[in-house]
Structures
1.
Amino acid sequence: MNKMLSAIPLVLMSSMAFANGECGKVTIADMNWSSASLIANIDKFILEHGFGCEAELVPGDTMPTGTSMIEKGEPEIAPEMWSNSMREALDKGVAEKRLRFAGQSLSDGGEEGFWVPEYLVKQYPEMATIEGVVKHAAMFENPEDPDRSAFYGCPAGWNCQISAGNLYKALNLDGAGFDLIDPGSGAGLSGAIAKAYERQEPWFGYYWAPTAVLGKYKMVKVDFGSGVDKEEYINCTSNADCLEPKVTMYPPSMVQTVTTEAFAAKAPAAYEYLTKRSFKNDQMNGLLAWMEENQADGDVAMEHFLTEYKDSWKPWVSADVAAKIEQALNNL
C-alpha cells in the first residue's frame, strides 16, 4: 500500500507534464537519403533549442520506420515519409489513433516527369510540350544508332522503370523514332544529364525531384497536354501488367511528416511547428545541390539552411522560439 501511495506523486507529475505540453525525449527518424537527413537535422535543432526537447536521431527507412511507429510508437517523428508506398498501413495507424499526419514535408509533393534541358526550351519554346519534343526528335541522337533518337528511361529494377516504359508506349515514342535507353544505374542517368549539360547538347528522359541533379542542372518538365489521371496512373501506368496504357502526367507523390499520436498529444507546440515546416521542390533541389557540391551531411547542411534561409524557417515558429534558435546558432 505504501509503495502504491509513493507512486501517486510521480504519476501526477507525469500527467501534469503531459498536460502542460512538455516535449521531453523525442526520437526522430534520420532516413537514408539526403533530403530526409537534412530535414531530420533541422527538426532536431529546432526542437532542442526552440522547444526544449531532448531530441535524438535514429536510423530510418520508409517501410521499417512506418511499421515501427505503428507497432511500437518509435520513432516519434518521421520528417519525410513518402506515404504512398505504405498508404493503407499509415491510414490505419491514423484511424487507430496511433499516428498523425502533421503536414507536407514537400509542399509540391515528390515530382516525376520527362524532362529536357532549360537551354533547349529557351531556343525552342515548343519543346516544353511533348509535341515539340517529337517535332525535333532528330536532335536527340541515339549514341548507339544515329538514325534513331534517345529517350532515357529508368534503370532496370527500379519501380519507375514500369511507369516510364508504359508512358513511352502510350506516347508512341517508338513510332516517333525514339529508342528507350536503359541508363544502367541512377549514376548513369544523372551522368547522362551532366554530360549533355556540359556540352549543351539535347537530352530527353525521365527524372524526379527533389534531387541534387535538378538543383544543379536547370531542366523543364515536358507537358503531355493530358493533365493528371490518377486512376489511370495507379491502375495501369504504374502496373507492369498494363497492356494499353493511356497518356497521363505523373501525379505528385505525397511526402508527409508523420508523428505518433502520443508525441502530438504531449507536445502540441512542437507538433504545431511540424505542421508548418515544409519545403518547395525548387528550394530543396538547390539545398541538395549545395550538399553535393560541398560534400555536406545533414548536420552541416542544417547549419547552412538555418543560417542562410532565415526568411524560410522563421514563419514556422513564434518570435520567441525563433530568438532561441538564433541564439543557439550564434553559439555554434
2.
Amino acid sequence: MNRSEIVDGPKPKHVQLRDILRRLAEQELPPGSPIPSERDLAERYRVSRITVRAAVGQLVAEGLLTRAKGRGTFTARRRMDVQLYLESFTDDMRRRGLTPATEVLRCAEEVPPPSAATALGLPPREPACLLVRLRRADGAPLVVERGWYNPRVVPDLPAHDLSGSLYTLIADSYGVQLDHARQTVWAEGADQGTARLLGVRPGSPLLVFRRVSSSAGRPVEDMTSWYRGDSYQVTMQLDRTTPDSGPYSAKGGTP
C-alpha cells in the first residue's frame, strides 16, 4: 500500500481508501487475514479516523471485510456455492479440499409437525426420527441441519453413527439411494440459538434450504438447513424455455 495513492481531488478520500482496501482484500490477503488498525491506516494515508471508519464500514457492508469484537477487522472468507444437486455435506467439503466434521446435537424418535408428516407420507402422530446436526469445515461452523426421517424406510436410524455422511450411511446400511429432491430456498435472520451455534450475531443473514428427498418415489428425508450468509451463495442457470414455469425459470439441476 502506498501513501501517495490518496490525493486531494474530486474523488472523496474515503472512496479512495475503500478502493485500496478492496484491492487488498480481493488480491493480496488470504481470507481471515487482519487488516491494519484504524490508527495505522489513518497515519499511513494521512486521513482522519472518521474517513477510515467510513471506508472500512462500506466494505463490511459489502461482505469483503468482517469485524470481530475485541480482535479487529479481517478479510472475509470467500463464499462457497451451495450445490443444487444431491450431494452430502461431507463429500462436498472433501471435494473442496476442506476437512468436514459433524456434531450431533439431537437424535430422537418424536412426533413430527404436520408439514413434515405430510412431506414424509406419514399419518398424523406417527413418530419419525428427528436429527439435528452442526456441520463444520476446517473447524469453522457453517450449517445447522434439522431433519425428519421416514421410519418406514430407514428404521432405527438413531442406532447408527450419524457423525459422517448420512447419505452414504443410508445407502450402505439400508440399500436406499436418494435419487430425487425438491428444495425451497429463502433468507432469514439468525435466531439466538442458531446464531450461537454458527458463531454469528443474532439477526445475521442466513440462507435457509428446505429439502424433501426421496428414493424410487418414497419420501425419506425432510430437512431444513441454515447456512451462514457470509460463507455461502447460490448460483443458478436461468432458462426461458420451460413453459410450465412462466417466461423465466431457474435451472440448477436436481437439488
3.
Amino acid sequence: MFNRLKKNVIASLIVTLLAGNVLPSQADVADSLPDIGTTAGGTLSINQELQMGDFYVRQLRASAPLINDPLLNQYINQLGMRLVAHADSVRTPFHFYLIRNDDINAFAFFGGNVVLHSALFRTSDDESQLASVMAHEISHVTQRHLARAMEDQQRNAPLTWVGALGSILLAMANPQAGMAGLTGTLAGAQQGIISFTQNNEQEADRIGIQVLQRAGFSPQAMSDFLQKLADQSRFTSKLPEILLTHPLPDSRLADARNRANQMRPVVAHSSLDYYMAKARALGMYATGKNQLGDDLLNEWSNGNERQQQAAQYGRALLFLEAKSFANAKKIIEPLLAKTPGNVWYLDLMTDIDIGLNQPQLAVQRLSALKASGSDPVIQLNLANALLQAKQPAAASRILHRYTWAHPDDGNGWELLAQASAAQNLRDEELSARAESLALAGQLDQAISTLGSAGALVPLGSLKQARYDARIDQLRQLQQRFRQYQKGR
C-alpha cells in the first residue's frame, strides 16, 4: 500500500517523464531551437524506438481502458496528423490513442505514440485548446525526449529503466495496476530522470506552441487552457492530476501569454467534428455520471450553427444510450436527410436501425454511400450491420479487406471472428482471435490459438502454410520483445 508521499514522488516521475504536464516554461518566442532531439542516436536508433513503442502499445491495449471507438479514434488521429504535418524533425509515424479516464492528462512515448485522457474533452473549451495539449506531446516525440533520457541513464542499469517505463505508462492509464508494477523497478534512477526532464518540458513548450500556430490554431490556446486548470484548482480541494506535482505560478502563465502574443494571431473556429467528438466522449465514455448534461447542451443550443448541431446530436446520443431508439430517430433522421454524408449522424442512425431490429435498413443506408469502400468508420458499421442482418459472408468480405488495410485495429478482428463463427469457419475464427491476442501483447496465447487453427485445416494446404508463417512472425516478435521484458 503506497503512502501519500510515495504516491506524490511517483506522480512526479510519471508527469515529468512522460509529458503528462503541459505547463509552459519560460521561453523567448523568437528562439530557434537546435535539433538536439536527435542526439540520442547513440543509445537508440529510430528502428529501436519503433520496436519499443510497439511493445508498450501492446501492453497498454492489454491493461489500460483504451477507447476503441472508431469515430473518436478517427477524429483524434486526423487532428493529430494535422499538427504533425507542421512539426519539424518528424522521424516516426504517429498514432494517437484515447483512454477512458476522468483525470486530465496526456503522455507520449517511443515510436510516435501519443495517449490522451478522455477528460481533455470535458476540460477543453475549443479545438485549439485540445490541439495545444497534442502539440506539446508531439514535440516530446520529435525531440526524442525519452531516448535522450535513456541516454542520460545508460550508465545506471538501462534495462531496469526500460522495464520501469512500462509500469509508468500503465500508471498513467490505470493508476492502481501501474503503481503496483513500479515498486520493484524504480530503484535509485528516479531522481536522475526527474531532474533531466525539466529541460525537456521547456523544449516541448517552445516547439509545441509554434506547431500549434503553424497548423492554424490559436497560439493563445495553451495559456487559456492552463488558466482554466489554475482556476479549477482554486475552488477545489482536489487538484487536477496534472497540477499535483507541478504548481502553476502566475509567472508561468504570463510567459506563455507573452510568447503567444508575439506570434502572428490566428482566428481559429472549432470544427463540427470537435463538438461531435466532445458530445460523444462525454455522453458515452465518462467514467462517473453522465457529463453531457443540460447545461452544456443548452449552451450549445444557443450557440453557433456547429454547436447547435452538436446539441441535437448529443440529445439523440443520450436517447440511444437509454435505448429510447424512437426518440433518437426523431432527432437524427431529419439531420441525416440534410447531410447524408455526415459520418457522425450516419453511425448513430445505423445504431438506431439495429436497435429497432431493422438491420437491413442500416445495410441499405451504408451501402448507398460512395465512401462505403474507403471510410474506415463506414466499413466497420456496414460489416456490423451485415452481421446483425445475418449476412456473415458479406461481412467477412468487407472485414478481410479492412483487416488487411488496418491490421492494428482490434475492432476489425473482433468483427471478423464473429462473422467467421457465424459461418462455422472455426479455423478463421481462431485466426482472427489470435490477431486480437497479439495486439494485446499476449503472444504465447496468439501462437497457441494459431496452432489450433492450423490443426483444423488439411495438411499442406495454403491455409496451414499461412497460419504457420504467421506463427513464425509472432515468434520473431517475441524474440525482439524479450529484452524489454527482462527489465520488468
